[in-house]
Amino acid sequence: MNGLVSLIGAGPGNPELLTLLGKRRLEEADVIVYDRLVNPAMLSPFVAEKIDVGKMPLHHKVSQYQINDLLVDLSKQGKRVARLKAGDPYVFGRGGEEGQYLSKHNIPFEVVPGLTSAIAGLAAAGIPITHRDFASSFHVITGHRKANGEELDWENIAHQEGTIVFLMGMGELPNITKQLIAHGMASDTPVAVVQWATHWKQRSISSDLANVVQTVEKMKISSPALIVVGGVVQLMGDLQPHRPLQGLHLLVPFKQDSKLFHALQDEGAAVNFFDRRVKQPLAFDLPDFDAGGMLIITDFAAFHYFQERLLTMGIDNRALANWKVVACNHIVKYRLQQDGLLADELYDPNKIDYQRPVVFIGERATLAHYNTTDNTDKADYLATYQSEAINQNIDLNDFHGIVFPSSASVADLYTGSTSDQRDLMSHLHCFAMGKTVADECQKLGLKNVIEVKPSYDNVIQMVKKVFAR
Ligand code: SAH
User: Fold this and answer.
1) Active site residues
2) What is the distance between the alpha carbons of residues 452 and 391, in angstroms, rounded to a whole number?
3) Of all helices (H) and strands (E), which one includes residue 76?
4) pTM, full prediction
5) Reported confidence tier of residue 184, pLDDT bands at 50, 70, 90
6) Ordered domains of the chain (ranges, CATH)
């Protein structure tokens, strides 16, 4: 059976500006086919195969014909396809053509609308597309001339009441301003240009028809951008959002419903994720619980798998009644407590009583760090899982800093990175939540490590301090 193709609008860029239906379709998809303007941060949470068919200006990566055929092929393989397009799929960007092609080939498809940059992108720069005092209509126009060089109906456009928004217009800006003035629009009509709206690198300028070309050159504003012509541009001064971390691009470890992501985004930072290593549970023998002894828990995930094992054997934490429970650090202790288990003490290698059974539990490779003392043969090392690194597919040039909430997160990014990525990483600001995490960063050679007391508030305060402008 042919799989459903969903033409999904990704919105202007900020990953939280996706619709709920769009999000669900991305979760359900087998494959996501996405464009150049789609923010990569939006794709991180989804496990589907991802195909980039983005087109760079003047450097067409995949032709529209190839994209059309790809969608049909994937659907015929029975795959659920999410065709993710910037803004709204039916506002320029050829969504309508893709729909027609699918329809012609009897492929089931639907459209999931998105917030168009023509409206939402303006708002992000403080421009309401209509306003009672300035504009009671709006007109969205492509600035891209057809291949045959045919001109737009400038006479008509220049005499419209309301806001005019040009998409794909940057290459034509001199012509646009010239034509509007030539057809009677006042040369002091306000004009704004908004580049990369709602992305971390959003920039905007305001000017007027006579001067905007010069302003844009001076400020080096280029595509992708929205050109806005009309009185509403004057409202930018009042309505432009000013958030403390605006313009910052930070990297955090991926977590579903990450509180850190939300906390940073709410302050205006743009946040992207790196992938965590995959945890693979391992088979292991449970200790003889009757003997009693010391159970040393090196990380919480290890205990989680340990507990799962207990449950499958029909027992629970009460089996540990005769055991001293030792947490390797404060975070493990805290997580255990949240889980209903009070650790008796924190790990101190000098305070282990080897007269009684000693069992370490942890991740396979990490356990080796604990397995170096002279007492090695007196303890048991139970690896309850192992971590498998994933290649980190991120351009670290694009970031200002990384937040590491745990030592494992440091290792996750580091082990999955190439040596070039590691070089870049070593110069980024790394916010380490707690001393253990900072130590781990330093051990791996990161040079710009900032230790922060482990709470999201502290992270935000410190990020503000470091990047104060
Ligand atoms: N379907 C999209 C438009 C696709 S055409 C939408 O509804 O927004 C591509 C053009 O859209 C770009 O050349 C640029 O003019 C505009 N655009 C899209 N996203 C943008 C963004 N985040 N910031 C500024 N312009 C954007």
Assistant:
1) 35, 55, 168
2) 27
3) helix 64-76
4) 0.86
5) very high
6) 5-115 (3.40.1010.10), 119-239 (3.30.950.10), 249-276+391-468 (3.40.50.10090), 279-388 (3.40.50.10090)
